C-alpha cells in the first residue's frame, strides 16, 4: 500500500490525475498535470510500488548519473504530490504517472483509498484522444461524469461512451461505485499532427480545470508555446496541398457545426470567464485562448 509522507491537513482538496500512454494523445494530459506541479511548486508525498503494477519489459527503468557520477535507477510508477495554490482556500492533490500494465482494479482501489484518507472532495481525470479536429480552431474539450447530479450541477455531459477504455475510464467507474464525485475532461488532438507535445491541447485542458476550480491557473509560457505550435503546423500544412485541403474541410465542418453556439448567451458566458481570468493578480496571462 501507498505510504503517505509529510502530509499536512488539507483544505477542501481536489485530486487531478493524468496518465501517460493510451489516454494521453500528444502528451497533452500528463503535460497539464506536470504544468500544475511546476507552477504551484507541488511537494511529492507518495508513489505506487512499481513492482505491483508495471511490466518492466514494457516500461523499462531508466539509468542516470548524478553530478558525482553515481548511477541511479528511476522506476516507472505513478506519483502523488500536493499543491497549495497561493491565495486560494483549496488544496490540490496531483497524480501523474504511466498507465499501469496490470492489476488495474487493485491500482484504482489503492488510489481511491488514498483519496479517502486525504479527504478528497472530487477526482478530476484528464485525457486526450486523436480526433478529426482542425489545428486552427480552439481545441474541443469534452467534460463528462457518470453522476447525474454532478452532471446537472456542473453542466457536464453524462458519459455515453461504449468501447475500449484505459485507466482513466476504469478509475472513473471505480469512483462512481464508491460514490466519490468524479469528472473527466478529454481534449481532441488533431490526428494529422499526433506527435508530442501538443501545447494547445494542454492549454485547453488547463482552461477547463481552471473553470472547474473557479480560480486562475498561472500559464507561464504555455500560451506562446501553443501559438508557436499552431504556426508550425500551419507551415507544414502549407507544404502539402492534400493536407491543406483536408484542414480546410475540417475547418468548414467545425464552423458549420458550431454556428448554433454563436448565441448572445454563449458569448456572454465566455466573456465572463475572460474577465475573471484578467482580474487575477499577478498570474501572467497571455492573450492566446487555447480552449
UniProtKB/TrEMBL annotation:
Lineage, highest ranks first: Bacteria, Bacillati, Actinomycetota, Actinomycetes, Kitasatosporales
Pfam families given in the database record: PAC2
Signal peptide: none
Protein name per UniProt: Carboxylate--amine ligase
Organism encoding this protein: Carbonactinospora thermoautotrophica
Tree of life domain: Bacteria
InterPro entries noted in UniProt: Proteasome_assmbl_chaperone_2, PSMG2_sf, Rv2714-like
